[in-house]
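quick one if you have a minute, typing this from the bus. below you get a single protein, a line of residues and a line of whole numbers that encode the local backbone shape. could you go over both lines and see whether the tokens make sense for that sequence. anything you notice is useful, everything is just below.
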Amino acid sequence: MEAISSFSISGLPKIYFGAGTFSDLHKIIRSYGRNALIIVGGESFKQSGRYDALASQLDQSKIKYNTVSVRGEPTAESIDAITSEYRQIPVNVVVAIGGGSVIDRGKAVAAMLAEDGNVKDYLEGVGTRQLSGAKAPFIAVPTTAGTGSEATKNAVVCDRTEGYKKSLRHDACMPDVALVDPELTLNAPQQIRTACGLDAITQLIESYTSVKANVFTDSLALKALLFASQSLLPLSIDQSDDIFLREKMSYAALISGITLSHAGLGAVHGIAGPLGGLFPVPHGVACGKLLFPVMSHVVKKIIDEKNLAAQKRFADIGRIFTGDSGNDDISYCGLFLGVLRDWTEILKPPQLSHFGITSADIEKVITLSDSKNSPALLSKEEMRIILESVL
């Protein structure tokens, strides 16, 4: 009889999931007060007409709001600029509507509105101060299906001058509300849909195969992996407007945030993080490009090391991806890798050289990389081989 190992679950946001739920956002905002700070990304959300509809609802509800438009990954400077402006203005709730970078920026702003100093003072591995746990209430509204940031307790802050991506982390940084409306992802460009989908799948694979995985995360990850595998190619190629597929991928992304928060990630993210800190590589692109070569090395090592428990986990995913049954675990590990190879060949994530990375930069990336919670630890030489293969 299989024993259930110990695990702990930290708080989750109140989750509103489903097509059309965005129409209730103004009611959720109103439940926190009459003064809102809304952070939005890019132009696609505004161009969709949904921003105007929300603004009209807020006006009718007599809710005062200020809107900040942001672009790119969250930097310490951009977070400090927003918080310094709004610390002296009543803010009952912070709302972030956008992709993972927008939501991470919103998390950081909500936390820093209740603190003094700069966000760098509180970053893991950078600053020396600890967040108090006080914050402005925070509502996360993703417009992409990828990072799962709407269900994580950290905000990733990028500094390319110093070459890092570091987290502002505290249980209190978990959003109070996650409103996940798959209809909001309909305006995302194809390359963003693909990159985000690959990010969500990578997070689910790595959290399911993590050495910190547990029965709670397992039960969530397997269903989400099925949905993600059914949705990735159709959404990226020829069924981008299928709302049912959008729902499946949005759900997979949401669950990937929950599972990574409770089980951790693996070697793909251990390399992708430094890549994104040093170079302007979109996170989903980095994950998508590294996924097959990294997993090829990891699977080879767990087979060579006769790690039967890890083999079973990769085989579980192979069964889900192929819908096949009847083979042994090692065969399903091979089928798992075959699906990843096919996805890479079909979706063609850009080579890393497209973002200015050269062979001379590999050593710098390797120095900052690790295997995180992977069941197989990659050597520096293996990381070098992987990075050379995707330049």
